[in-house]
Predict the 3D structure of the following.
Amino acid sequence: MTNLSRDPNRMQSPKSQTASVSQRKPIHWVGAGLQLLAIVLCLEMLLGISEGIALPLRLFLMGLIGTCIVFRLGWLALVALQISLIAIEQRQGQVSQYPLAFFYGIVSTAIIVMAMKVPETHRFITDYVAGFFAAEVNKSKQQLGFVIGRIAISMLQLTLMVVIAGFLLSRLPIGLQAESWLEWSRQNGQAVWPGAFLIVFVIAVLVLVRENAWRQLAPSQAKLYLRSVQLIANYRDLFGFERHRLRRLRKNQNMPATRTHSPLQRPKLRSGERRDKTIEKGLK
Amino acid sequence: MTFKAQLFAIAGMMGLFLGLVRGQPVLSLLSLSSLLWLLSEWLLFIWHVRFQIPNAKLARLVNGESDANRSLWSERLIQVRIQMANRLWLFGVTLDVEDIVPENLELTAPGTNGLTLDAIAHRTDSKPKSRILGPVSRSWLIRGFQSFMNYRDDCPSNEKRLELGSQPMEWGYTARVRAAGNVVFPGFRVMMQSTHQLFRIERFVKAEQSFRALPNFVGAGEYRSLTKKSNVIPRHGVHRLLRSGMGSELLELKEYAVGDPFKSIAWKVSAKRDQWMTRQYESEVPARVQLIVDGSSTSRVGGFGFRLLDQMTFVAASVARMATNAGDPVGGVLMDERGIRRIPPASGEKGFQVLLRSLSDFAVNPCPPPSPYQPRMLDAAWALLNQRYPELLDLKVNHYPFSVFPMTPTARTRRRQRFLVAGALAEIYGISVREQVSLIHDEHAFAMRIQDLLNSSGIPWITPVISPSDRRDREPIERMANLGKCITSAVGHARDNEVIVVMSDLLYYVGILEFMLPAVKLAIAKHHRVSFVCPTSTLLRPSRGVSVDFSREHSAEELLLVAEQAKLRIQAEQLQRELHRCGASLSLSGEKNAIHLILSELDAIKSGNGRLHGNLR
């Protein structure tokens, strides 16, 4: 039996709103395979920068990093690269001594970043390739410009970060720089290590971060924070009160409504009140 | 900072530490570069949060109007458009905007203009029917491959992802109003996250718009039989409403009085009686309809559009429409646990609109009866708070005491959720810290608050809101007595032969009908017509001859349906027998048959015919 109120014929059929993308074209699979192959080749180049790593370990690390890229695990890709570096890099070196160090840093960081945003990158590439083959030249050109601009900005950001990191590592008294720093500080009467400066810097950054977090709070969040602090400070006492209240409530619910205490129970005396012995005899 | 970012930072710091201790410069460089990159992403994200989100101005148009004081119609489609007025300079972040769709709305997907799976779940009443109760989870393996292969799931049309340099834009969706009541759009859920998903912030932007959803109605079509089945002479004791007026049927002859029109003089009779006589004509007085709608708690259980009350409001609105078209006044008595409210009979379009508005307000669920605490309540509250108040579940502001008491991880998670939900509830309702502790340890108080939260957020009375044990009426005798009072009140306000329609789920109250039947007998003794409309929860009328063919195998659902039908049939026959003795008619559906029955009664009362009494449709 058809319910009138739910008669489907009375409802207009809505137009198609979203197109299903579950049916992928073969070109997308080819693009994905090529992209993964390029990443693997890049990794091979990075991991093969030194000859000291064994082939099984190299293959394992490549597989691990490839898996991380597929499953968007950028932090694990970083760990994998760190493991490879621990295994192959020589000790007591300096950043400035390796001309390829900066290049290595930029490329490896880029791979880590790409591992985190691989769907977006992949989407741009596959859409561009698909548009190119579909003869949508104008659209492909727009997309290509967009992709190139975005990649250029990201690479600029990464390069800047690597340069800053290299500058900090070369300036701070770490490794071989420690002796020259010590020499310089003795001659100029400065601190042996710039710890004081670093501590002040770190505290300033922490204050900045905390202040920013406070300023982002909505009024309801600020009230809830104060409430939480009060709750934690007085939780034991409040919990005791609540437990006592619940116990009393439970007891009252079990007892008859007309009687407040058991007749065999001795009622408590108020201060200054004397117990009547006749009542006590009666109770006994 | 997300968990992914925390892992990334820990890996970077560990690598930097090892690189410095072991004196490996490239390792140090890589780790420090990663940390600095993370810092730069955080600064970029903070800049967006501070300067971009406040610039976002969102507006919602429902059917092209931004005014909230308008009415929608249930069971009809509405167009919702979302407008974003400002241009956002989003770089390195994405902004997800979701218009929270109220539970009384059903998003229409392409190709699903019939019953959806969700609707079937509502019908079988076996699953929670709330949209907030979690999406379908997929395994991490499938998600990983799909993310790499760029499988994009069909995004719901009420959501939109904004990326780099988004222009002022507009998007929208189509939805269907499920039932009469109200439709409250609470606001937008905005989530900004970096493209690498390292930092995320969620906010709920309140943009409340409330609409009244009027009950739907249909034209009943032709309901009269083409063949004459019985004589139309009224039964003994039943008389037509006879008043003098300007109708066409002759009422009586009377002596001429000064002022009577000459054209009404009966010449032949005057000649015979040798006295001036004039003809009096009948007045075509409309027949009044009194609709008694029983909105007790049992009729409100279920998802929107699948409640018994929705069927009742549908029948009531349809009958009112037909009666209004025929010029008959329609009144109503609305009854539930809150009391009895009477709507005076009125005719015309204005009266019809008043009745519809009253039915719509009546269909809004009140505070549900208290239910015992059940763990699903916590799940529902957690999901709802995550959707509407994500900022209150932030662990930075909603602290809870740590317990050294050993417990399983699941129990520890439940404890954490309970503390956080209690904190958020305390903030929403503005209660003291002492009462907050009561919420944590007193299950009764906690359950009541959660019920209130879910109900006020527009969640229907389904399992988390109301427990299955509370779906039966707690005081059935009082309910029957109140129904009798309503009928008596309707009789008291009635003038002459009227049609009194009682809409109530009486199937489970056959044994205690004697508390209501005296009022029915009184109404019939006063020459009124009484019709009962009794909608069933399964949306199926109990059919005759339900049997099971044991020669073939049946599924559990089929057997359950057959058993339920058989049970319903027995109850329906008992109910019909009881009402037939009194002379009332009964319809066991909230559909076209019920409307036909009432309209036939209306016709019968106009003609004075009594043949419809006691019919079962």
Observations:
- Residues 26-176 of chain A form one domain.
- The CA atoms of residues 191 and 197 of chain A lie 10 Å apart.
